[in-house]
Write a structure and sequence with these properties.
This protein is α/β, with parallel strands linked by helices. The chain has a single domain, classed as 3-Layer(aba) Sandwich (Rossmann fold). It has eleven helices and seven strands. Keywords: Oxidoreductase.
């Protein structure tokens, strides 16, 4: 799709993948609203790009409503919404309820709440694009981080559901599923996370570039690490073999130390 003059919203845009998305959309001529909880860092990024900063919580119902209202006020139309904000919480099934609640609200319900506000208008006019930053963990999994793995699977499922429900009504959906990306989330993932992802980690700019190519080609899955497609196919073809391999891999790793609060 031609991006010049389009209204784009990117959450989690103060740094990392979100900032790279905003930079790429701005360079393509889009009018961009950026959002993040870190208001100070967000203002810096917005000033650098000439984007509109709307700080706040893009996961709560009230926060999403405020963001979409502010974006419509500044852009007129929201043509592309990038649900990029995410949290990485580690631990097993025994991790405390807060880790599950935060993960569910940020990684899944933020997407649902944004779609709830945007999709009716997009269907009425016959166009709109929803971008979900998921993770290869949503296609595969990750040892030692149950809240992250489970909610990223749910984020992928919701993106698939949006596409199958509204794809013939002019709405395009893209699920971005990288493995390691050189961001704070990777550096803070502990020894196990870095051992799994750092060797093949790509830059946020590469993820943004791959997204724009996928948008041009109208592809649902965005895979900055193409090998993930083969892993995903292997998982589907022989789940028992795949699970056995995951157990072997997990046994050789130190504990994942993603945030657990």
């Amino acid at each position: 799709m031609a991006l010049a003059g389009r209204g784009v919203v990117v959450t989690g845009a103060a740094r990392g993948i979100g900032a790279a998305y905003a930079r790429a959309f701005t360079a393509a001529g889009a009018d961009v609203v950026v959002n993040d909880l870190d208001a100070g860092a967000l203002e810096t990024t917005a000033a650098e790009l000439g984007a509109h900063a709307v700080p706040g919580d893009a996961s709560s119902e009230e926060g999403v409503e405020a963001l979409v209202a502010a974006a419509r006020d500044r852009l007129g139309e929201v043509d592309v919404f990038c649900a990029n904000a995410g949290v990485a919480r580690g631990g097993t099934e025994a991790v405390d309820e807060r880790a599950w609640d935060v993960s569910w609200n940020v990684n899944v319900m933020a997407h649902v709440r944004a779609a709830r506000l945007l999709v009716p208008g997009w269907v009425e006019r016959g166009s709109g694009t929803f971008v979900a930053t998921v993770s290869a963990a949503g296609l595969l999994s990750i040892p030692g981080a149950a809240p992250y793995a489970v909610t990223k699977h749910a984020a992928l499922a919701f993106a698939e559901w949006l596409s199958m429900t509204y794809g013939d009504k002019g709405i395009r959906v893209h699920a971005v599923c990288p493995q390691g990306v050189k961001t704070d989330m990777l550096w803070n993932s502990g020894a196990a996370g870095r051992a799994l992802m750092e060797p093949s980690a790509v830059t946020p700019e590469q993820v943004a570039e791959d997204l724009l190519v996928a948008m041009e080609q109208e592809r649902f899955l965005v895979l900055p690490h193409p090998e993930v497609a083969q892993m995903y196919a292997g998982r589907a073809a022989d789940p028992d073999r795949w699970l056995a391999g995951m157990r072997r891999m997990a046994a050789g790793l130190p504990a994942v130390t993603m945030g657990t609060d």
